[in-house]
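Sequence, please.
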């Protein structure tokens, strides 16, 4: 796949940190959505080549977050980034259900989106790597929570969104690294891919959807790394984990600050590691 660097919305200094590929994504995994809206993993099923008129999405960004060294044996950064999915710090631990040895169903619970009531659900495959883990989203769907509760038909807007979400793929590569100053750090690289022929992503067109996702990653990833910093500090010290009294307005402000280039302390954008295959594990030799 040919790749080119896109300008980061936060600063021209990060031009090499954003990768937007023009070629079709090469993925070996897929998922399907049953008539009831339930995601089913088909990790062994090869995906067909995208249609000639498909809207292609392929965007990557990477950030690191400095952390203090672990204070207890077995509580180092590498131990943290290789934690099994059952030990992830979630607001609701019941939201994760194992469906296969390395595959999990994750629900965000009922959410208000404009006037709609939805339940975002994803199928996540987690595999350990030499430096951490790969979290691969194999499928996503917005369940119509109101329709399920009342027995009514699915909302047309939610149905349209799901036509795009079924073709969305995402990989979050988390690893333990050592920065130039010798400090330990957590590195996160998110790659978003898709070939869309239906729904709003298809209608948006390639340039618009790629620019939107580039901006979204620049907004969300710094906030996410900031949360990993706090969570690692608690986990490494054996302290209780989890955000208390989450202030949604404050979280929104923090995410918007990232989109404007204001990063949390110790968080910085770094060049993307480009692997030979989009969904293959990326080791040092691939960089």
């Amino acid at each position: 796949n040919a790749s080119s660097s896109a300008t980061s919305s936060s600063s021209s200094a990060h031009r090499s940190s954003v990768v937007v590929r023009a070629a079709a994504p090469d993925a070996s995994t897929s998922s399907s959505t049953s008539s009831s809206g339930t995601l089913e993993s088909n990790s062994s099923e090869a995906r067909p080549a995208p249609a000639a008129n498909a809207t292609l999405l392929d965007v990557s960004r990477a950030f690191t977050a400095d952390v203090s060294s672990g204070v207890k044996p077995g509580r180092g950064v590498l131990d943290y980034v290789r934690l099994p999915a059952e030990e992830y710090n979630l607001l609701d631990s019941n939201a994760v259900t194992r469906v296969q040895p390395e595959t999990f169903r994750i629900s965000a619970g009922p959410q208000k989106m404009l006037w709609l009531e939805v339940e975002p659900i994803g199928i996540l495959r987690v595999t350990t790597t030499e430096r951490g883990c790969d979290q691969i989203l194999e499928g996503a769907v917005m369940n119509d929570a109101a329709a399920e509760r009342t027995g009514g038909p699915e909302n047309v807007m939610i149905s349209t969104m799901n036509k795009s979400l079924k073709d969305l793929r995402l990989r979050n590569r988390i690893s333990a690294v050592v920065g130039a100053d010798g400090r330990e750090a957590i590195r996160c690289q998110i790659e978003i891919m898709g070939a869309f022929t239906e729904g709003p992503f298809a209608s948006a067109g390639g340039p618009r959807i790629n620019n939107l996702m580039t901006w979204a990653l620049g907004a969300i990833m710094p906030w996410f790394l900031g949360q990993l910093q706090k969570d690692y500090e608690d986990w490494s010290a054996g302290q209780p984990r989890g955000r208390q009294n989450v202030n949604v307005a404050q979280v929104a402000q923090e995410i918007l600050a990232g989109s404007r280039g204001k990063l949390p302390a110790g968080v910085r954008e770094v060049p993307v590691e480009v692997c030979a295959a989009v969904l293959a594990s990326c080791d040092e030799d691939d960089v």
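The two ends are 15 Å apart (CA to CA).
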